[in-house]
Amino acid sequence: MSNTDFTHILTRTVDELSEAKSLEGLFHQHRDGTPLPSGKALKEIIGLARSILFPGYFGKSSVNTRTIRYHIGVNIERMHKLLTDQIMAGLCFSCHDSEDFDPNECRDKACDISARLIEKIPEIRRTLATDVEAAYNGDPAAESHGEVISCYPAIKALANHRIAHELLLLGVPLIPRIISEMAHSETGIDIHPGASIGHHFTIDHGTGVVIGATCIIGNHVKLYQGVTLGAKSFPLDNNGNPIKGIPRHPILEDNVIVYSNATILGRITIGRGSVVGANLWVTEDMKPESKVVKKV
Question: What is 33-188's CATH topology?
Answer without folding.
Answer: serine acetyltransferase, domain 1 (1.10.3130)
